[in-house]
Each structure stands twice: as C-alpha cells, then as structure tokens.
Design a protein that fits this description.
By secondary structure, this protein is an alpha+beta fold. It has two helices and three strands; from the N terminus they run E-H-E-E-H. One of its GO terms (molecular function) is DNA binding.
C-alpha cells in the first residue's frame, strides 16, 4: 500500500527529520556541524524558508522550518544534502551516500 502524498502548504511549519543511511553517523567533527549550519542558513534564505529550530545529533537532524512556497522545503533539503555529502566525501576521502 503506497503512502499518502505529503501535504505541503506555504507558511505552515514543518518538522523535518533527516537520518543517516542505516542510522550511521552523519557528523564526525565540530567542523562538520558548522559547515551544515552555514549551508542551512544560506539555502534557507535562498529558498524562502524560515528556520525556527534545529537539533543536530550524530546520526540525524531535526529541523523546524516554515517554507514561503510549497517547493521551498524540498529544494532546501535537496541542496543541503548535495552540498553536505560532497563536503564529507571530499574531507574524509570516501564515496557514496551518508
């Protein structure tokens, strides 16, 4: 049975959880957290999302944000994921997903 379509409405807060593949670690040093937060800030502004709260754990992330348009949250998370995975793969000389 397929899951129900996600309901995305502008100006309605979303709780987003992003987890590491197989619940493995996503952050390995303090610099990784800083890089993630810096990119989150830039991309949130770029895609019209207000970040109200965030919680960065070693193997997952919780975000509370409000997108200005329906596509904003998806574009934010896509860009953030791409930038962060490329950063980690380059820094730790690895390949693949997180």
């Amino acid at each position: 049975m397929p899951r129900r379509p996600r309901v995305l409405l502008p100006d309605i807060p979303l709780h987003i959880i992003q987890r590491g593949n197989n619940r493995s670690a996503c952050f390995y040093s303090d610099d990784d957290y800083i890089f993630y937060i810096d990119n989150l800030t830039v991309l949130a502004e770029m895609h019209g999302c207000k970040v109200h709260a965030l919680c960065l754990m070693t193997n997952h992330v919780h975000l509370l944000l409000t997108p200005a348009c329906c596509a904003g949250a998806g574009l934010l998370m896509k860009g953030l994921g791409q930038r962060y995975v490329q950063y980690v793969n380059r820094k730790y000389q690895r390949t693949g997903t997180l």
